[in-house]
Amino acid sequence: MHDQPRLPYPSIASPFFSGGHKTMEVIGEGTVSAAPNKAIIVLGVISESISLTEAQKENASSVTHIIEALLRLSVPKEHIQTTQYSIDIQYNYEDGKQLFRGYKVTHLLQITNDHIDMTGSIVDTAVKYGANTVSSIQFTMANPEIAYNHALSIAIKNSLLKATTIARTLGVTVHPTPCLVQELSRMQGPTPYHAAPLYAKSEGTPIQPGELQISASIKANFIYYS
Asked: Is the same domain home to 84 and 135?
């Protein structure tokens, strides 16, 4: 985890009187980089047939094979969850007429992976046993609040740096403890990886999680005096 505080930039700093004290308002920002340690993969099977029964049968067989293969890969059963199951009627349109084409059955599984280096193997295994769609891969952290609180601490220090810079420019002195602090940001959700819809190559699929950027921002009021 590496601190990456942003450089100060001109922001709103409005002197005003409140209870006899001159105050200024600044925005503080902080960012830290952290390696993700959890992946959330959504993949599954789309089956099409003129017969609904056949489409359902084919789809169920493929999904069952995928789940069995993932269990053999040591993915815990409780980490495999159905997130979508739908049946749609397919049509063709010719000369302004709607013509029945068949049925489409979609079954998507969400796999939560605590061993992030297995992400590529999970995708490849699922495809080998019948998966024909990968809708998303998201990387996140098991305890993101730790990194976020670190970024929040940097944001507060950044607000003091800005207030001090403004005060020095104005030739005044600023009190180092803000009289009011307001949190502006919230923790963000997982970062999506825009995966191709299919992984059909025989070699292992390279999935690169990279690093997450966790940011925080606050609004702080500082008292200053001549």
From this structure: yes
